[in-house]
Each structure stands twice: as C-alpha cells, then as structure tokens.
Design brief:
The complex is a heterodimer. Chain A is mostly helical. Chain A has 3 helices and no strands. The chains are: A mainly alpha, B mainly alpha.
Chain lengths: ~120, ~200
C-alpha cells in the first residue's frame, strides 16, 4: 500500500523537507527539545508562583495568558516544528487563528460594549 | 487500490497526505476548543460572581499533570527523532514512556474527579463546574484517544517498521502533532480553570 519509491514526474520527494536530515542535525534537534522542556517546566512554575500572589483579576488573567502564550509558542514552534513548516500549513493555521480570534473576541467585545446585554 | 503520497510529498502541497490531513483536523479541533473557551469567557464575564479555581480545585495535582504532559511531549518528539536515526528500539521505549505519561495523567485526573464526586460537586452545581467538567472531560477524552493510538504503534502497528520505515516514522510524526496539540490545550486550560 505504500508509495515508497513512487515518483510523480520526478517531483515527489521523501517527506523530510523542513526537518533535519543528517544524524548530527537530528541529535542537535534532540538537545534543543530538552532545552525547550526545561523552559516549559520553568514557565509552569512561574505560572503557579504568579497565581499565588493573588493579583487583581484583570492583571492575573493577562499575566497567566501571556505566560501560557509563550509556552504555547514553544510547543508549536519547536515540538510541532512550525518554524520550519511548509507554507500551506502556515496558511491553514493563519485562517484558523483568524476564526479562533473571532470566536474569542465576539463574546468579549459583546460583554464590554456599552450596548451589550 | 494504492493510497498515494503516504511517504512521498505531493508536488502541489509539498506535504505527504497524512501531514496535511492532521493539520486540517487540528484546525477543526482549535475551533472546537475555541467555542468552549468562548463559552467560558461569556459565562464568566457575564456572571455576578465567579469562584477562583485555586480555592476549589487541586492546583498541586493539576501542576503535576502539567509536568507530565510537557514531559510526554518531549518523549514523543524523542521517539520520532530516534526513528529518524534508525533506532527502532529506543524509539519504541520513548513511545512507551509517552503512553505511561498518558496513563499517569488519566490516573491523576480520575483522582481529581472522584474527590469532586465524593464532595457532591457535579456539573449541575453551577456554571463553574459545568465548564470545568466539559473542558477537562473533553481534553481527557483526547488524551485517551492519543493513548489508544500510541498503544497500537507500540504493539501491532510497529510491524510496519520492518516493511516501510519511512511510513511508520511519518505515522509517529503525525500522532506526535496530535499529542502536542493536546498538550497545548492543557497549557491554556491549566491557568484558565485552576489558577484564576
């Protein structure tokens, strides 16, 4: 069932583009994963530490979501390899982000609008 | 009939089909969880009062679960990297660790749930618990689905390594992308529900 070795007009390539190829590059990537893990763990501790300060709700929400966004960036950029991903995937994600933003912004804006119910 | 482009990149997309497929699926998942987060914002901002998660929920257990999921994200990329290096056994060990992390997450989650049930805290109690159970429950189902897929690739699905290494490696990459998404959702769920 595999299309291994099957080439369409010589254009099809093995699906490794955008990722490290040589063993040295892959091992370098593996070291990076450990560094990212340490960063994520540290940011988790920061999130918990900040929450124990019991800041005013608006500040607490802003800070917690800012830290979560940095963690999300680290996961998406390095573990999901979005930094080196193909343009088509980035376009799909950009469209998703726009619609996700509409979903979140809608109720938020509605609540804080002077005409909101 | 042969399924095309399971290993080779399609010339027009530059991707093998499985990879494009998982990203489209993840896009739909973003909208699914986005709708629930949107509902949470609407309910919380519209409520006259809303309890602080850290006063009702077990932050220590949730923090432990956060570390477990982050660690499992590392183990799954390590599995993929080892498979790319041709180290099947080491790759399978990392897949096993990922599966165990999933088990650990679900055990801790079940402890959390059973404590809540013991104290008669159910979704019907208030909107806080309704959103808590829906969001963490749906997330837990995603963890469970990922564990089933990992169990398959550790067990019977691993036979493919001996017949088509690249395709098996790609399958682990695709599963890993899904697993990272599950981790990403938890990264936002944790502060939103437990710490605010």
């Amino acid at each position: 069932m595999s299309d291994h070795g099957h080439h369409e007009g010589g254009e099809a390539r093995e699906a490794t583009a955008g990722h490290a190829h040589s063993p040295e590059e892959i091992k370098k990537e593996m070291r990076l994963y450990i560094v990212v893990f340490v960063g994520l763990a540290a940011l988790t501790l920061v999130t918990v530490g900040v929450s124990s300060l019991h800041l005013p709700t608006h500040k607490a929400i802003a800070l917690a979501l800012a830290i979560a966004s940095v963690k999300g960036f680290l996961v998406a950029a390095f573990f999901m390899h979005l930094l080196s991903e193909k343009k088509l995937i980035l376009i799909v994600l950009a469209i998703t982000v726009i619609f996700f933003g509409m979903l979140i912004w809608g109720p938020w804006q509605h609540h804080y609008s002077p005409f909101g119910v | 009939m042969e399924i095309p482009y399971t290993v080779q990149e399609r010339p027009d997309t530059g991707l093998y089909n499985g990879k494009l497929g998982i990203w489209l699926f993840l896009a739909s998942e973003v909208m699914l969880f986005g709708a629930l987060f949107s509902s949470l914002i609407l309910l919380r901002s519209g409520a006259p009062s809303w309890p602080h998660g850290y006063e009702i929920l077990n932050v220590k257990l949730a923090t432990l679960n956060t570390f477990i999921l982050i660690f499992s994200s590392v183990t799954v990329v390590m599995a993929w990297a080892n498979l790319r290096l041709g180290n099947f056994n080491r790759g399978r060990i990392f897949l096993g660790l990922t599966f165990l992390c999933g088990c650990g997450f679900m055990i801790i989650k079940s402890i959390e749930y059973s404590t809540k049930f013991h104290h008669h805290l159910f979704p019907r109690n208030n909107n806080f618990f309704a959103t808590y159970y829906v969001l963490t429950g749906l997330h837990g189902l995603h963890v469970l689905a990922g564990m089933i897929v990992f169990a398959y690739f550790i067990g019977p699905g691993s036979k493919m390594w001996h017949t088509d290494r690249q395709r098996f490696t790609n399958r682990i990459e695709v599963t890993g992308l899904y697993w990272h998404f599950v981790d990403l959702v938890w990264i936002f769920l944790f502060p939103t529900l437990y710490l605010l």
